[in-house]
Amino acid sequence: MPAVGVVVVREDGRILLARRRNAPSEGLWSVPGGRLELGETIADCARREVREECGVECEPVEVFHAVDRIHHDAEGRIRYHYIIVDILATWVSGEPVPATDASEVGWFLLDELPALQTTTGLAEVARALLERAHA
Q1: What is the DSSP letter of 22?
Q2: Which partner for 14 in 93, 95, 107, 118 could form a disulfide, CB atoms 3.0-4.6 Å apart?
Q3: pLDDT of 71-116, one tens digit each?
Q4: Of 115, 49, 111, which Cα lies nearest the Cα of 85?
Q5: What is the per-residue pLDDT across 38-50, written as a single tens digit (0 to 9) for each?
Q6: pLDDT bucket at 132, cuts 50 / 70 / 90
Q7: pTM for this model (two decimals)
């Protein structure tokens, strides 16, 4: 399933995170994102997912990379296989409010990430994209 993960950056360097309400990764902090709908561009998907999950408007800047996230069930069968395209975006407007797939949302500094239970690779992707944003 193609999906996006959106690293939304505010002018003060904080990134938008959402605590996942549903499987996979239920209860973990991650960047907003979700499945690409048929006929939807990556940029449009990024805008929609951030708006639906967090109530924030963003502007996609660039595609960073893609990664496979394969989740197995207790018997070892593949339950989910996402191909996630990570995108750098800038904050346009709105204050985060949890909706659809998020139980909590907020703005965080990179230094705050180690204290959170996050999805695999979140800190590394966020750091790399913040470096690009400030280059």
Answers
A1: S
A2: 107
A3: 899 999 999 899 999 999 999 999 999 987 899 999 999 999 999 9
A4: 49
A5: 999 999 999 999 9
A6: confident
A7: 0.90
Q: Which CATH number fits domain 2-133: 3.40.309.10, 3.30.420.10, 3.90.79.10, 3.30.70.100?
A: 3.90.79.10
Domain ranges for the chain, please list them: 2-133
Residue 89, exposed/middle/buried by CB under 10 A (0-12, 13-18, 19+)?
A: buried
Cα–Cα distance, 74 to 14 (Å, whole number) = 36
> What is the Cα–Cα distance from 75 to 93, expressed in whole angstroms?
44
Phi and psi torsions of 85, nearest 5°: -95, 115
Q: Give whole-number Cα distances, 15 to 11, 27, 31, 74, 121, in Å.
A: 10, 18, 8, 33, 15
